[in-house]
From TrEMBL:
ABC transporter domain sequence ranges: 462-689
Protein name stated in the entry: ABC transporter domain-containing protein
InterPro entries, alphabetized: AAA+_ATPase, ABC1_TM_dom, ABC1_TM_sf, ABC_transporter-like_ATP-bd, ABC_transporter_sub-D, P-loop_NTPase
SMART domains: AAA
Family, as annotated: Belongs to the ABC transporter superfamily. ABCD family. Peroxisomal fatty acyl CoA transporter (TC 3.A.1.203) subfamily.
Coarse class of the protein's main subcellular location: membrane
The entry's keywords: ATP-binding, Membrane, Nucleotide-binding, Transmembrane, Transmembrane helix, Transport
Organism (species): Ascodesmis nigricans
Bilayer disposition of the protein: Multi-pass membrane protein
Annotated TM spans: 113-131, 151-173, 347-367
MF term (GO), any: ATP hydrolysis activity
Entry-linked CDD domains: ABCD_peroxisomal_ALDP
Single biological process term from Gene Ontology: very long-chain fatty acid catabolic process
Superkingdom in the source lineage: Eukaryota
Length: 722
């Protein structure tokens, strides 16, 4: 009982204690206010000093960890999308650099839009302040029972809606217009550099730092512009609201109470900031994964014809799915982090800060604030509603400032990627690269041909009967092509560029329709195509040999890694397994291997699949004669019927028939006698040389420049046999 009597306080004692405390506060209010403002000023100065010290320390760490300048060929690069994204000096340097581009001067259209946008922001804040006062008057008139005042306040409420809605619409318009202007300025600037001094070529062929320039220029520039325009609106108005609302609140409820509340809000905000995930880093990584996914699609489009010939859609689907689901996994991770962070923000901003606000707004009801008059119930109600409205608006403004921290980090991610593109283009234009070494003719007749369709049948042989050959632009190159290829009857195809060889392959591969005649060909899986530069897919070393198969398809074919090694030994590139890091190593093999190795990989791919027919389009142009002999004899030993496009005389002996186009719509299909053809070629060359010497003797005063002489001699020596 004694303990209870000590702890118990009567209502009178509590009220007396509060009364003495308030009287003491009011007596020394001036001194307390000065101490509060002095403390606030010292805290602000200390905060600025700590921020400067942190920036200097970060700069020192960056300088110590920075790589040596002057990267030579063969060095590695982390890539533009892998830079660490932080709100540091590097971010502000890049941001100011981009701001100079998007806002070129004080007289620019962008600056005029910014000024107009700022004016509407001020007008909106003033309207919100008037609406808060009007809200209090409405409630006060209700409490006092003054219907006439209430109706007049309703009228003013409706009248103020006109400038308010106009202002909100203009703010939205200015924000969208600013984003569009920023993007236009930056895009034009990038285009002027990208399409200057062959930068676009060097960016993709001589430098490895930017793998997806198209995604950076089209997507990241747009996101940067939108983020920058939104950030100004989302920062300028909340800061302005906080200044005006807090000033009015300090007059209504006292500056000390507002300061105490601000202190608690700042402490909770610091805790929230410490617990905020690095969203800028997440956004930059998401943009990088988006770029890689887009680049995979571009790669598919770029090599669509060869992939279609090889029936590699399943392998490419696996590559695309892998890139897509890696991106989705990262996006889901970001969403989960945003979920937990959003729950924390909602609790602190809406409820904890709301409770503090209720206490602050109720202060004039219980404590007399000098300079205020709230004697009656209506006055106290009006003051509470007005202060509550001001506080909610101020809290909302502060919350938007807090939310804008995530927007700033996202802007940092976009800024880093766009600035990296500009830095790389500047380096390239200075000569600094970083790369890892390792319709013509009768239109009516053409239209008639193109409107028709031929017949396609499946069989064991390849037979063309009166089939028109059409170029990509619709020209009919050969009106009626007829020839046949039976197993073991290897065919050599020769002719000038544009005569129809590629169109013939597209028909064989099923990529183009048959515009007439009849085509008999085996199923697509029995025809394999190897171009001059084989397609190197994205994946492991093993996938390059078995493409378009996957590792899971090897047991079905009864092939092991040992069998693949024997194939590589046959084409004399078995060393790439050890030097490349093993069968499962994944690299950009197109950059690691030379053109000659890539051609051998293409032949190894042929030996793995063992089709009935193989189309070889200059696929040994980078090989010596001995290697070429090994490759062709191995293919023939595997019962692969060869259809070769080449002008190399060394290949004549491996073929039985020849299909020769003259480039004028004619063709010859006949047996190929290699020895006889070589003798005719030699005889023709001798005759042409003798004819040239006769011309020189008969025309002694004939003057030619050295360049024209060489061209004439080359033309004579390379003329086809009669």
């Amino acid at each position: 009982m004694a303990a209870q009597s000590k702890l118990a306080l009567s209502d009178g004692s509590l009220m007396a204690l509060l009364s003495r405390a308030s009287q003491t506060y009011l007596k020394h209010r001036t001194k307390i206010s000065r101490a509060v403002y002095l403390t606030l000023f010292i805290a602000l100065v200390n905060r600025i000093r700590n921020a400067i010290a942190e920036q200097k320390a970060a700069a020192v760490r960056h300088k110590q960890n920075a790589p040596v300048a002057g990267v030579t060929a063969g060095s590695s690069s982390t890539g533009a999308g892998r830079k660490k994204v932080e709100l540091n000096r590097e971010f502000f340097r890049n941001l100011f650099r981009l701001l100079k581009i998007v806002i070129p001067g004080v007289r620019s259209r962008e600056m005029r839009l910014l000024i107009s946008h700022s004016v509407f922001l001020v007008v909106r804040t003033l309207i919100s302040l008037y609406v808060a006062e009007l809200d209090g008057k409405l409630v006060s008139s209700l409490v006092r029972g003054k219907g006439k005042d209430f109706l007049w306040n309703i009228v003013w409420w409706m009248l103020v809606a006109i400038p308010a809605t106009f202002t909100n619409s203009m703010l939205s318009y200015h924000q969208c217009e600013l984003a569009l202007q920023y993007r236009s300025r930056l895009t034009r600037y990038i285009h002027s550099k990208y399409l200057n001094q062959m930068t676009f070529y060097a960016l993709g062929n001589l430098d490895d730092r930017i793998k997806n320039a198209d995604q950076l220029i089209t997507v990241d520039v747009s996101r940067f512009a939108n983020s920058l325009a939104e950030l100004y609106s989302n920062l300028a108005k909340p800061i302005l609201d906080m200044m005006i609302y807090n000033y009015q609140l300090s007059r209504n409820v006292g500056g000390e109470g507002l300061f105490a509340m601000s202190l608690l809000v700042q402490l909770s905000a610091n805790v929230m900031r410490a617990l905020t995930p690095p969203f800028g880093k997440y956004v930059a990584e998401e943009a990088r994964l988006e770029g890689e996914y887009r680049f995979s699609h571009s790669r598919l489009i770029e090599n669509a014809e060869e992939i279609a010939f090889l029936r590699g859609q399943e392998a490419e689907k696996m590559t695309l799915d892998k890139g897509y689901f890696t991106l989705i996994k990262h996006v889901n991770y970001i969403l989960r982090r945003r979920l937990y962070h959003g729950m924390m923000e909602d609790f602190v901003i809406k409820y904890f800060w709301g409770a503090l606000g209720l206490i602050l707004c109720s202060t004039p009801v219980f404590i007399k604030i000098p300079g205020t008059s709230a004697a009656t119930l209506g006055d106290r109600t009006e003051g509470f509603v007005t202060n509550r409205r001001l506080l909610l608006s101020s809290s909302d403004a502060f919350g938007r400032v807090m939310f804008s921290y995530k927007e700033i980090t996202e802007l940092a991610g976009y800024t880093s990627r766009v600035a990296s593109l500009l830095d790389v283009m500047d380096d390239i234009q200075r000569g600094h690269f970083e790369k890892n070494l390792v319709s013509s003719g009768d239109t009516d007749s053409h239209a008639a041909v193109l409107s028709g369709r031929g017949e396609i049948q499946e069989g064991s042989d390849i037979i063309f009967t009166d089939v028109p050959i059409v170029s990509p632009n619709g020209d009919v190159l050969v009106k009626a092509l007829s020839f046949s290829v039976t197993p073991g009857a290897h065919l050599l195809i020769v002719g000038p560029n544009g005569c129809g060889k590629s169109s013939l392959f597209r028909i064989l591969g099923g990529l183009w329709p048959v515009y007439g005649g009849k085509v008999v060909k085996p199923p697509p899986e029995e025809i394999f195509y190897i171009p001059q530069r084989p397609y190197i897919s994205k994946g492991s070393l093993r996938q390059q040999i078995i493409y378009p198969d996957t590792k899971a398809d090897m047991p079905r074919r009864g092939v092991s890694d040992e069998d693949l090694m024997r194939i590589l030994q046959t084409v004399d590139i078995d060393s790439i397994v050890e030097s490349g890091g093993g069968w499962d190593a994944e690299k950009e093999w197109r950059d690691v291997w030379s053109g000659g190795i890539q051609q051998r990989v293409g032949m190894a791919r042929l030996f793995y699949h063992r089709p009935r027919y193989a189309i070889l389009d200059e696929c040994t142009s980078s090989q010596d004669l001995e290697t070429e002999k090994t490759l062709y004899e191995t293919a023939k030993s595997l019962d692969i019927t060869l259809i070769t496009v080449s002008h190399r005389r060394s290949l004549w002996k491996y073929h039985v028939n020849i299909l020769q186009f003259d480039g004028q719509g004619g063709f010859v299909f006949t047996k190929l006698d290699a020895e006889k053809r070589l003798k005719l070629e030699e005889r023709n060359s001798n005759c042409n040389c003798e004819l040239f010497r006769i011309w020189r003797r008969r025309l002694p005063n004939w003057r030619l420049s050295s360049r024209k002489k060489g061209f004439l001699i080359l033309q004579v020596l390379t003329s086809p046999p009669p």
